[in-house]
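FAQ: What does the model actually see?

It sees only this:
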Amino acid sequence: LNVYSRSLNTAKSMEEIYELTLDAAEKILGFEFADFLAIKGKTLCLEAYRGASRISSLELPLSGNKGITVRTARTGKSLLVPDVSKEEAYVEGGLEINSELAVPIKIGEKVLGVLNVESKELDAFGQKDQELLEILASHAATAMSNLDHAENLEASAREIRESQEKFKRLFM
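And it is asked to produce this:
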């Protein structure tokens, strides 16, 4: 996790953050499927995934009551489901999944997205897996926030330079 956190903090794009986060999740946990979903407006959008999938794009309304990832995004709390057949919020995604772990990616109380892993095995994830995935999600949230701040600073610097150039032309 420490190695990946350093890489995440130097990421130059959101796509790089998504890929590095999934790389770390793949190394740390055994899963058949993992995905990184980001909140955009009132929608939870699939940004990147690993493993076999029939879905290459996905947008889930946050207003819905179905879906483990939607519930995680809405509540801001991790959801460890040892047997998805016993979970009312579970929505089948086309794969034979039996257990799922979804953790929020958040800064403070603001949820930025969800990191989700799934397995064909029953009870594939435990409390330790949840803790590790929560730490990884925290690193991803920090990297996303840092990248957003850096982009805002860059935009402000660009505006200042443009303003200086305009003032210089007016002065001349």
